[in-house]
Specification:
Layout (H helix, E strand, L loop, with lengths): L6 H12 L3 H10 L8 E6 L18 H4 L4 E3 L6 E3 L3 H4 L5 E7 L6 H10 L12 H8 L9 E5 L15 E3 L21 H15 L10 H17 L2 H6 L7 H7 L3 H15 L3 E5 L13 H25 L6 E6 L3 E2 L11 E2 L3 E6 L7 E3 L16 H12 L6 E3 L5 E3 L14
Parallel strand pairs: 1-7, 1-8, 4-12, 5-6, 5-7
Antiparallel strand pairs: 2-3, 4-11, 8-11, 9-10, 13-14
Length: about 425
């Protein structure tokens, strides 16, 4: 048998008239001999709603009240410019795609986050699961590893999938401090051997109870949590994956000695260890892009860690041969107002925003979509959070039209209204 086709060759087949749709291409890619299925992902959520026109969609020719204080700089991709405070990402623009002209109408933190964390508009009747819970359902990791880790806290949860697909929530790492993981670190005075004996005793007691299959989903989920907790807590591989002290000083410096950078370093370690999905969502008190006042001074503090940390993640994954098998998605819940307000800030604005995607089948070095001259509305094709979600799932090898049965027996499509954004997967 000959060598399997490369990703670019598969794309070329479709471009040459073989009639392959994006969905068909991804199925072929997954089934091709010797081609690994994309089963790993890192989702980076920038809490508060970053200012798109001060990061990845600058408008240098707009009036001063719209343009703001930052200047654009050239990237290593001809014709693409980003903010001057993102110089490291400017030199790596060939590794990621910028999505401009993303638009929706939920300019509220709570419902906006639910929308961007699930890819479905919030509903009063359906609780949609976050991305990592879907991956946990479809692509479970090895028994001694969590499939889905959320740093530093989850917001939406597993929704209609049930509690067994909740994330393992890990605390954010801090440079120079010992790292502990809630749910993995043993309680004081409890050794793995003692824990094993307690587990054996509980298993013996369980023999007295029958009819496990008749228990409801919530109870079965709790039992699965107990089983997974035991597998994880007794796993040396898991404990090592969370141990940043294993890293060389050069790697610590590559990501930056700040919470955002060290969190992305932890995310990379988890993916390398075999965890399939990591969400990075730092609490807003420490990394808050909700810049109603003093937008520019705050961004001068926030953007350098974002720049170094995300650049470090791209470099690390590429250096270790993981970028082609790890889907990366970075976004916030919305953008900011075109005009700077009286307090030097920008307010909530959902009608235009940006997102970044990289890894897997994403073709870096391009800008997909655009906003108008004042970064207020999409210019031409608008993309919704549903489209972003559909693209993310496609890149993971999960068909966004997949239907799941809810706990009340109602079939629910994974992404109701979105379709994959085809230009992301071609140049």
């Amino acid at each position: 048998m000959g060598s399997p086709l490369t990703r670019r060759q598969w794309l070329s087949v479709g471009a040459l008239g073989a009639g392959l749709t994006l969905s068909q291409y991804l199925r072929l890619q997954a089934a091709a001999p010797g081609k690994p299925v994309l089963r790993s992902a890192i989702f980076i959520f920038l809490e508060g709603g970053p200012s798109h026109q001060d990061t990845f969609d600058l408008k240098p020719d707009a009036p001063a009240a719209v343009r703001g204080e930052f200047n654009p700089i050239r990237t290593n991709v001809s014709g693409v410019q980003i903010c001057e405070h993102l110089p490291m990402l400017a030199q790596r623009a060939d590794k990621y795609a910028i999505l401009r002209g993303v638009s929706h109408n939920l300019a509220d933190h709570g419902i906006g986050k639910k929308y961007l964390l699930t890819g479905n508009k919030p509903s009063q009747t359906v609780s949609y699961p976050e991305y990592g819970s879907i991956v946990s359902r479809q692509f479970p990791s090895a028994a001694d590893l969590p499939t889905y880790v959320s740093i530093d806290e989850s917001f939406v949860g597993p929704g209609y999938l049930g509690s067994q697909y909740s994330p393992l929530t890990a605390e954010k790492p801090r440079h120079g401090f010992p790292y502990k993981v809630r749910g993995v670190s043993l309680e004081e005075g409890l050794t793995v051997a003692k824990f094993t004996r307690q587990k054996k005793l509980l298993d013996d007691l369980d023999v007295a109870f029958r009819g496990f299959d008749d228990l409801d989903d919530q109870v079965r989920g709790l039992d699965r949590f107990s089983e997974q907790a035991y597998d994880i807590i007794s796993s040396r591989r898991t404990r090592l994956a969370f141990d940043l002290s294993q890293e060389k000083r050069s790697e610590i410096d590559r990501f930056g000695k700040h919470e955002f950078g060290q969190t992305l370093l932890l995310a990379a370690r988890l993916i390398e260890a075999g965890v399939h999905f990591v969400t990075v969502r730092l609490r807003p008190a420490e990394f808050d892009f909700d810049t109603h006042a003093e937008n520019f001074p705050k961004l001068r503090t926030l953007l350098p860690p974002l720049d170094r940390g995300f650049a470090g993640l791209l470099d690390r994954l590429q250096d270790r041969g993981r970028l082609d098998s790890t889907a990366i998605f970075m976004t916030g819940e919305f953008g900011r107002t075109p005009t700077v307000n009286g307090g030097g800030g920008r307010d909530h604005w959902a009608r235009a925003m940006c997102a970044l995607m990289a890894g897997g089948a994403i073709q870096g070095g391009q800008v997909v979509g655009e906003s108008d001259s004042q970064a207020a509305e999409p210019a031409g094709q608008a993309y919704s959070p549903d489209d972003l979600a559909a693209s993310f799932f496609h890149n993971l090898g999960i068909d966004p039209r997949t239907e799941f049965q809810t706990n009340v027996g109602r079939p629910i499509m994974l992404v109701r209204d979105g379709t994959p954004i085809a230009p992301l997967f071609s140049v």
